[in-house]
Automatic annotation (TrEMBL), chains A, B:
<dbReference type="InterPro" id="IPR006091">
    <property type="entry name" value="Acyl-CoA_Oxase/DH_mid-dom"/>
</dbReference>
<feature type="binding site">
    <location>
        <position position="161"/>
    </location>
    <ligand>
        <name>FAD</name>
    </ligand>
</feature>
<comment type="similarity">
    <text>Belongs to the acyl-CoA oxidase family.</text>
</comment>
<keyword id="KW-0576">Peroxisome</keyword>
<dbReference type="GO" id="GO:0055088">
    <property type="term" value="P:lipid homeostasis"/>
</dbReference>
<dbReference type="GO" id="GO:0033540">
    <property type="term" value="P:fatty acid beta-oxidation using acyl-CoA oxidase"/>
</dbReference>
<keyword id="KW-0560">Oxidoreductase</keyword>
<dbReference type="InterPro" id="IPR046373">
    <property type="entry name" value="Acyl-CoA_Oxase/DH_mid-dom_sf"/>
</dbReference>
<keyword id="KW-0285">Flavoprotein</keyword>
<keyword id="KW-0443">Lipid metabolism</keyword>
<dbReference type="Pfam" id="PF01756">
    <property type="entry name" value="ACOX"/>
</dbReference>
<dbReference type="GO" id="GO:0005777">
    <property type="term" value="C:peroxisome"/>
</dbReference>
<dbReference type="GO" id="GO:0071949">
    <property type="term" value="F:FAD binding"/>
</dbReference>
<dbReference type="Pfam" id="PF14749">
    <property type="entry name" value="Acyl-CoA_ox_N"/>
</dbReference>
<dbReference type="GO" id="GO:0005504">
    <property type="term" value="F:fatty acid binding"/>
</dbReference>
<keyword id="KW-0276">Fatty acid metabolism</keyword>
<comment type="pathway">
    <text>Lipid metabolism; peroxisomal fatty acid beta-oxidation.</text>
</comment>
Amino acid sequence: MSNTNDKTGVVAISADQGRIDYAAERARAQFDVEEMRAFLLGGPDRAAKMALAYRIIERDPILSFQLEGGHPFDLTRPELRAKTMAQLRRVVEVRRAFKDKELDDLFLTAMCELSESFSMRLFVTEALFVRSFRLFGTRAQQAEWVPKILAWDSIGCFAMTELGHSSNLRGIETTATYDAANRDFIIDTPSLMATKIWIGMAGETATHTACLARLLVRGQDCGLHWFVVPLRDPETGRLMPGVTAGDVGAKAGRNGLDNGWIQFTHVRVPRDAMLARWAHVAADGTFHAGLNPEDADPANNVSPAAAAGLAYAGLIPERLEITRGIPMMLNQALTIAVRYAAGRRQGPAGNPQVLDYPSIQAALMPALARMHAVMAAAGAVWTTWHAMEEGGPNVLLQGLPDMHALSAGIKATVTWDGADILERCRRAMGGHAYSRYNAIADYIGDYGVMTTGGGDNAVLVQQTARYVLAMARKAMADPAKFAAAVAPTDSVAYLPSAVALAAEGTPPAVSDWTSLAQLHVVLQWLAVAKVQALGMSLAAAPKGGMTRAWNAAHADISAVAQLHTHQYLARAIRIRAGDLPPTTRDSAASPAALQPTFMHLARLYLLDVLRQFARDLLLHGWAREAVEQLDAEFADACATVRDQAMPLVDAFGHPDWILQAPLARADGDGYRAYLATIQNAPNCFGPPKYWDAEVRPLTAPAGRSRL
Amino acid sequence: MSNTNDKTGVVAISADQGRIDYAAERARAQFDVEEMRAFLLGGPDRAAKMALAYRIIERDPILSFQLEGGHPFDLTRPELRAKTMAQLRRVVEVRRAFKDKELDDLFLTAMCELSESFSMRLFVTEALFVRSFRLFGTRAQQAEWVPKILAWDSIGCFAMTELGHSSNLRGIETTATYDAANRDFIIDTPSLMATKIWIGMAGETATHTACLARLLVRGQDCGLHWFVVPLRDPETGRLMPGVTAGDVGAKAGRNGLDNGWIQFTHVRVPRDAMLARWAHVAADGTFHAGLNPEDADPANNVSPAAAAGLAYAGLIPERLEITRGIPMMLNQALTIAVRYAAGRRQGPAGNPQVLDYPSIQAALMPALARMHAVMAAAGAVWTTWHAMEEGGPNVLLQGLPDMHALSAGIKATVTWDGADILERCRRAMGGHAYSRYNAIADYIGDYGVMTTGGGDNAVLVQQTARYVLAMARKAMADPAKFAAAVAPTDSVAYLPSAVALAAEGTPPAVSDWTSLAQLHVVLQWLAVAKVQALGMSLAAAPKGGMTRAWNAAHADISAVAQLHTHQYLARAIRIRAGDLPPTTRDSAASPAALQPTFMHLARLYLLDVLRQFARDLLLHGWAREAVEQLDAEFADACATVRDQAMPLVDAFGHPDWILQAPLARADGDGYRAYLATIQNAPNCFGPPKYWDAEVRPLTAPAGRSRL
């Protein structure tokens, strides 16, 4: 419906063109969108339950945004806070009627898709706070606390970070001093720098916190432990005596969440406020390291040293959440950007769809592929983690080093990639992404914390690289022994074969650019080549200069962690593509009808990651011609996925009221919806309140009217 | 002042440590900070005037933020709008008393440093709106309008972009139809997609707009021209009849600026509303292309075709503003990030300053160098542009192709780099950048528009690359003729020598890594190598496939434009370093005492840019060992600049009340200031207003109090 204006000769694009273009895009689908949707959600039953969850939210004026006027982006911070807490309360009410655990899960997922602030409020209490009891609490403590937290009888937060110590737990200064005479602990913030800060829900709503503090017993430092400390009166919301806490105020995003700061001044909590699974203080003031006798189970006993290690395991699920949280947000951003690009026509040569430009394809198509790789990996990591948790402390301990390194690598790699993808989505929408009404701007604001919060990426990649380095050394020293010791789903399982390949001296050539296996081998080889280079540069460090050499190697450390993570993700998406058989700790293979689509996505994913590291491929001996071929294959793979881009984002299944981006309306009528949204904004048509005070004195000092 | 806690053994960092660390940083200065400051501002006189300008603003409760409570980041959108307009009105009042043009300029610069929203409001009227008269208006129109705009008697905006046509002026649909019977034009918006949108100041305040429309005379399309159209009654702010205009609402940033949208419905404007310098419509309805006889000047006459070209010259200054606007914002962000990194101590090995980590140095130091290169180039491009404007139409026309391509390349390259640098600043501050009180978050929000607005970067790099490609062909065809025809300050002046170098077949080796000349030659060689590769890939396009081949070459096009731009910027910073003699159209050399510092910055700049294109260096035959050496030299250059980082940001001279980032207080007492800012935020200590409605029903349904 582009038409040439009779008078001007200008080829004008009609606002109706979007509907036509969207229909044409959907006609290109080479897979069944509903089948893909159901697969991504875990089956047709779950898809039906998700549809029900959406219906429950859409029709509830408290849960949804659109029934109350549909302008969530114009809410002030206090309004957003109230709305988000109202959603939480309503969610608690709605869930009481649920008889179905899956519906409950999917209902929460849908709410988290709708609001990042809601998602974080929920996560802080039901994941972080509950998990601190499950990991660090005795059975009795779990039995006492977990049910009332899940009923939101107590609203809890997770006070770890201090003003002076973000990622360095060793520096934690808050103290918990045992007073044997009174059989209680005194919690205290000794300095300004020890102020707990950025604590979600501590700003306005939490009644309790789990607080990480240094335990002092009889003048001895007994290490870091968790304590439950009341913050506010559950009835009035007034701060408890000795608790100085407040809101952190204006933030880049998530303004519906009340991040806060806390200072404790001589706050007494009872002896059972210490989460005492892995260590406890007897009433007489004797400190006992190791599994609490109350939880004694000879089969699962662990040493005090191991218990200390387990205390850090609590951070792993937060990192693994990334595999669900990032696609939850970025699939929406990609839906918006892809739909915009499909509905936007621009350019000198016949106004093509923006989606037809190779530059836009190169920006958005690999992003779709990366998100599918992350979703595939989510199944594998969570299955593995749940098996570790359920296996008891010794099973957990055995799996911890690999899971710790992998979760750190995933958190860093996926959140860095996500920041990059969001910026591409923004740029793909031109100026219209600057309007908050198209949602991307708020995703970017909300997202700001992802690369630095929950463990700074720059620190996490060091944890991953250190582990991979140690494992590579073992694999080089005795490949057979190493291979026998690792499970096929361990993140380091590829090391023996990749080490052998690296030893050949010739970089692996790609003879078939459609072979996922060949591309995957190159990725694994490069990971090992980078690890070996890192090892060599560290080995050359002078005596006493190891810390300096390690810090200087930051770029290689980062590359090792990312390559290692990507080769793990690649396995997961290859399984979805039917290219590798899954084990019990992997994601499931996809239905046969979907496998060709996953093949395209997996291929693009691998090509894109290799291209990201093209400089390293060349430095480690890959031929220039191979990199040029890589570029050509990448462009080809982008064009292939481009044809399926609209069906792929349709299969994410986000309704318009979740996306909240009028320009990306599913029916293609975006421009009308966008302008209508703008026109319905508060006081769109003015004059503004400040006209008489600030404008008129300039433009009409003597009272001239032009009307 | 780190001290070991007696009880815990924890090495705690005192909040007083910042003062000590800042003093130590400043003691490292190898140049005089005041001398650098004066040089960057254009001399000691100008530095003194800037200090006065700061004093005027700091003490004025309307202009500044801090006197009214110091919480600008907590203002709502309506409050920000009113504040920004109040600042504008106050600025008009203050300037009436000025007798000094330099003070006036510096005063505006200082205000623009303080507020991006203010800056854009000022820019829209005093730059865009005024410039449309200066470029497209007759002398009579200029004489009538420019004084009253500069007095803010009329508030003007610049209505170019339409909803359906962002970067493609050929698609503009708004019409201006000449009605000979009534001797006026009828301005009309024919469709939804022709709605003018994103127009700064059109949302609430503009009384007039310059409107780009397609001129229709006697049924003939006479091309695009500019018309002055009243929008609002200057007395009441009511919309003029036929004008439908409103605010675009919530945006990612710049919420003190009222971006708007406009639809015209049969709006009549008089014949002299057409800006008629380059074409006009006689009263009888005859369209005349070419210089208006009213402006006749035989020496400066231009052809109608040339006049059409000049109509687009209006976009160039907006692009060149980037060379001032980006450092204005990013130098502040870098000041904040560098001071944070100097005052933050963190890490297992003795809590070093974060600034001592090579990863942080690699993020922030090249950013300082890039901003100095941009500032150096600002002098050159503006000198050249002013000479072109003052030389009359023929001089302007002669210089247009080079300036057009260069300005497009600068806009794209510098704004892409700026987005990257802002994200690095954010990440260097860890979680604390997520607080809006540390300013970076708002810079990122404000910045969102830079890469897509004022010409989408993806389009601009094509303009630059197309020009460089054409010029390289000429330089290859007849190097001597080409060299004789270009001025030494033309952006393409390097082509003959670089083409000759490329013809030798061996990539230029670097024998002295401290030689700016050698590094610059590599950059120029790579630019030509990429241009030639681009030309070859286009030459291989099948018949009729040129558009397709061009679009497919997007990555090379982008690289060519960026390399071309960087080699121009490199010349400017080499001149500052005393490494090249300046011509009359270059930036000035710096005082001898500053040249060693500029040498370090210029070296780091060149190394950083080459490193950015390491993949291309390798693909075009650079040795692997050279790239490895490049990495080592880069790390070394970062460490060298790191020692001067604090003096360098001090020399930007931004007072604390401009930076508005308590953690980056100049005196090093950031943590106390940060916490005090948080504690002074509205309703920090709660309980929140929604407690009784939304929290208490969960936590105290039966009315339990824990107090």
